[in-house]
Each structure stands twice: as structure tokens, then as C-alpha cells.
Design a protein that fits this description.
Blueprint: E1 12-21, H1 24-32, H2 34-37, E2 44-46, E3 53-57, E4 63-72, E5 76-81, E6 94-103, E7 107-116, H3 130-147, E8 154-162, H4 167-177, E9 188-190, E10 199-206, E11 209-216, E12 220-228, E13 232-240, H5 245-263, E14 268-269
Antiparallel strand pairs: 1-7, 2-3, 3-4, 4-5, 5-6, 6-7, 8-13, 8-14, 9-10, 10-11, 11-12, 12-13
Length: 271
């Protein structure tokens, strides 16, 4: 069974804690089932048992397969991905553990740890960008449980590399082109510069990312960001909960690809 030990000297992990609305079973369904994981992370399939198979789909980065190593509803879910890098067969397994603890007032605290629970020495570079990625994912989980609890989501994902430029520079350029350079939480916005029709409320702002709770083109939330993953990567990531969400995502993705290609110099779509 996968269990993180904070006193293990060879562990190298990304660790996070977040409070979310819902009772433990609400939260469990969101973090430990395929339809739930798709509302805040990536499309996934989970064989709901210890020893079961878990597959997560990461768009142009491909899919990752693992084994469920802890299935203790509604409090503990863990899995290991042993072949996370086909070019490094000697790599230690990549483990992820999520713990759920109920709090008064109808909320739960989620503690997530992901990385190398043992034998992580020398693999620290592989954790680059992991903190940023999990922070964003857990923010999305809180949004999903706050605004769309129990509802299925369709994923919208557009990614492109921007070679030879810093993520900070590309991020500033992207947000400026969208009219979001000075966005603040609570702002009501309609995107500028001919971007696909999008209307919503700013719910999160970072130095190179803005997240909107949207009602157009479909109810959901949309992250517009640049992150550092082997260089600058510009991204539009959405979770759409309205009727016909899959059709809306399929329609909007090529529109975003065209807009990014036209407004972010050097943007090369990843397919």
C-alpha cells in the first residue's frame, strides 16, 4: 500500500492542503472516481478498488497508467504510476495520495502528496512544475465542488509551446492580449481582442494566469495561463458543466487554437 511518510529521508514530493465544501462522500466521489477526477484534473478511468487500474489522459502529453494502492472510502485514496517515464525504466514509482478529513460546517480538508515517497534522491528535477500544477488542480476542485457539485464535466484543453521565451513574458503578453492584465478577483469580464466569446467572473489571479467562472460559452470555469514545462507553454483549460458541454468544448478548442496562434508570437499548437 502506498502511504506517505514525512520522515522518510529519501522522499521528494509536492505537498498541498485545501479546504473544500461538501461532506466526505461528496469529496470522495470527486477525487477517487473517473467522472469526479474529470471535473477538476483530467479525463480519467478508475477501477474502484485496491489493486485496480487508473488511467489519466493529459491531452497532447498522452495518457498515464497506474495502480490503485489504497481504496479507503471516504478518507484515503492513493495510486502509483510505475512507468511514468518510458525513457527511465529505473525511475522510482510516482505515487499520489489524497486524504480527506471532515470539518465542522459542511467542509472537508484534502491533503494531497505526489512524487517519490521513497528513493527520490537524484530525481528532484522531475518535480519541476509539479507544485504549480497541483495548486491549480486543487483550486479547480474547490470551484467544482462549490459551483457544480456532483455534475459531470467536459474538458476543453488547448496547449502550445512558445520556444525561446520566458513563461513570465509570454504570460504577461497573453493576459494583456485578452484584456486581463489588470484583472482582479470579482471582476465581470467579456474577453477582448476577438477571442472566442467568453463571459464570466474572475475567481483567481496569479502572475501569469487568470481563472474565470463562466456562463458563456457554457457554465463552467476557464483557466487562461502560461506555465513553465520545459519552457513556456500557453494554455486554455476549461471544465464545462452545461448541457452539450462536450460539443461546446469541441467547437471552442479550434477557435482558441487559432486565436493563440494569431496573438501569441511563436505559439506552436501541441496535438
Amino acid at each position: 500500500m502506498t502511504r506517505y511518510d514525512p520522515d522518510e529521508p529519501t522522499a521528494r514530493v509536492s505537498a498541498h492542503e485545501i479546504e473544500v465544501p461538501g461532506d466526505p462522500m461528496d469529496v470522495w466521489r470527486a477525487i477517487a472516481t473517473g467522472p469526479g477526477i474529470a471535473t477538476w484534473f483530467v479525463p480519467a478511468e478508475v477501477d474502484e478498488r485496491e489493486g485496480g487500474r487508473i488511467v489519466t489522459h493529459h491531452g497532447p502529453y498522452g495518457s498515464s497508467e497506474g495502480v490503485v494502492t489504497a481504496w479507503e472510502p471516504p478518507h484515503r485514496f492513493a495510486y502509483e504510476e510505475r512507468d511514468w517515464d518510458p525513457e527511465a525504466p529505473d525511475a522510482p514509482p510516482w505515487a499520489t495520495e489524497l486524504l480527506v478529513e471532515a470539518r465542522d460546517g459542511g467542509t472537508c480538508v484534502i491533503r494531497l502528496v505526489s512524487g517519490f515517497f521513497t528513493d527520490g534522491e537524484g530525481w528532484e528535477d522531475q518535480l519541476e512544475g509539479t507544485d504549480e500544477g497541483w495548486r491549480g488542480a486543487l483550486r479547480n476542485l474547490r470551484l467544482a465542488l462549490t459551483h457544480f457539485p456532483g455534475r459531470p464535466a467536459a474538458s476543453l484543453l488547448v496547449l502550445g509551446s512558445v520556444p525561446d521565451r520566458s513563461p513570465d513574458d509570454v504570460g504577461r503578453e497573453l493576459l494583456a492580449a485578452l484584456g486581463l492584465a489588470t484583472a482582479r478577483i470579482g471582476d465581470q469580464v467579456e474577453l477582448d481582442a476577438g477571442a472566442p466569446a467568453t463571459r464570466g467572473t474572475v475567481v483567481d489571479v496569479e502572475s501569469r494566469a487568470v481563472t474565470l467562472l463562466v456562463d458563456r460559452p457554457s457554465p463552467g470555469f476557464l483557466e487562461l495561463a502560461t506555465f513553465d514545462y520545459g519552457g513556456a507553454t500557453a494554455a486554455v483549460r476549461g471544465y464545462l458543466f452545461g448541457e452539450g458541454g462536450a460539443e461546446t468544448a469541441a467547437r471552442e478548442a479550434p477557435r482558441w487554437t487559432a486565436w493563440l496562434t494569431g496573438h501569441v508570437p511563436g505559439f506552436t499548437p501541441m496535438t
